[in-house]
Sequence to fold (67 residues):
Amino acid sequence: MTARTYTRVGPRATGVDTRLPWWALALPAAAFVALLLLMTGPGGATASLGEAGVGGVVEQVRQTFPL
Fold:
């Protein structure tokens, strides 16, 4: 006994929205800015030796990945 196979004709409607909501980009950007401000702020880490702020991070990245 053979079974009848069903073949779908035409495009399949999934109903899934592929666009990102506004907060899917805003929240990671806000978190990045907040962490950057915390890292570069004057903070209470006065006992640290070495460079502070973005210059220290850039120098560390330069030393890590020599070009």
Q: What stands out?
A: The chain has a mean pLDDT of 75. The two ends are 70 Å apart (CA to CA). Residues 23-40 form the longest helix (18 residues). The chain is about 45% helix and 0% strand.
